[in-house]
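Hi U.,

Before I forget, here's the chain from the pilot set. I'm dumping it here mostly so it's searchable later in email.
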Amino acid sequence: MVHRTYAGLGSPDLAIPAFNKLTPWAKRLLELQGQFDRFTAGWLAFGIAIEALETTAYHFTRRPRFYERLSEEMTPAPGTSLLGQPAEVIKTFIGLTPYHDALISMLQQCRPMGRDYMAILIAKDGLDSAAYHFTREDRFFAPRSDSTGPIRGPAGHVLAASSA
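Structure:
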């Protein structure tokens, strides 16, 4: 049996760089939210993902509203969203896969089911909730495989070759 030590993200000062690396993804979520009129279903769906990331960042950094400066810099463009078209929805959320993968990477540094692990799950589940709103697909970012073929993503799109 292998013993594994979970270091977590460290003290609040050490966690700040980890959340600074997520800034492009926070900005992307805000851009996507800005394509909708305020308080519409799409705006609120992306709001879930953004607030979940803010909550996770606060847990680790103890900085309230870690990404607030980004929202102040954004210029909303309501009514410009292409997320009503199924192909565009899939493309948009597949484009957010690296953000999801970054959250998974952070999860792997934390003790399973510990406080830090659960805090990162907040951001991950917020992203899954936004994806579900638009795609109606449970666990949008979860790999789908028949164990002999390629890993299939949403709507059967091939994401990567399997290693089986």
